[in-house]
Amino acid sequence: MSTDKQYWTQRYEDALTGWDIGAVSTPLKAYFDQLTDKSLRILIPGAGNAYEAEYLWKKGFSNVFILDISPIPLALFKKRNPDFKASQLIEKDFFKHKGVYDLIIEQTFFCSFVPHKMNRVKYATKMASLLAPKGKLVGLWFDFPLTEDLEKRPFGGSIKEYIGYLNPLFDILSFETCYNSIAERKNKELFGIFSKKDIKPKQANNPLHGITLKTILEELVAKYGWEYMDEKVRINCFAVNPSINSSLKFLRKTPWAREKVEKLYLRSKK
Ligand SMILES: C[S@@+](CC[C@H](N)C(=O)[O-])C[C@H]1O[C@@H](n2cnc3c(N)ncnc32)[C@H](O)[C@@H]1O
Q1: Range of 152's domain?
Q2: Gap from CA of 224 to ligand 1 centroid (Å)
Q3: Is 202 inside a domain boundary?
Q4: Is 68 in the pocket of ligand 1 (CB under 6 A)?
């Protein structure tokens, strides 16, 4: 058993589940109530007893997935909701889970990780990687200072800190003090809606993406001729009996020369 799995399972066994409010939380219920598309693929990671999933399921959202590292809350959920699809109950470490969702719901999950910067960056990156383009991360993040005490969950944070982790990957649609928290959490939590940014893979910014070396050479030769190319890139295959084939062979195994030719090509396009 992994340490995290042991830790959380022990908490359930010892009934040390102070985070568990026993029902869908009011802010999430209000958010769910205005959703109209019941086919949304929704993930609730670190779902615990998952009252939010139960609420959604009963409202007819058929693609709700519950994920937790501990089997105990999942088994309890299944007992309460025997008709819930077993394939949508996932016992797994969030960071090892793969999938694509339209919506991910956060509630007292972020604050359960030891608050090292690395864990918080990992959380934001993993959330983004599990979302479809324009998918949303929605939920509640505690708004109280982080203390030095690494034994004392929930671990706090501030709006500024959360934005620092989430903003590189998400557009912030709203993030403010939650107006409809449960009494115990009033003024202690932020409600946020984040939309996954459309970050193009690096290749999209590469002006040579999709252009073969053969095309580059053919165009250069047609435009400048071998003599000029030999002047610009001093390699034998441009100087002695030059041909496209022999140049291709040489350039493919000589990165420094290939780079020079590619640069020449880019300059020729300006
Ligand atoms: C503080 S509880 C919150 C439960 C639930 N979100 C709620 O609001 O009642 C944190 C939950 O996250 C689960 N958890 C912790 N680390 C996890 C991980 N790496 N992957 C999946 N679940 C994890 C724990 O088992 C626990 O159920």
Answers
A1: 4-196
A2: 64
A3: no
A4: yes
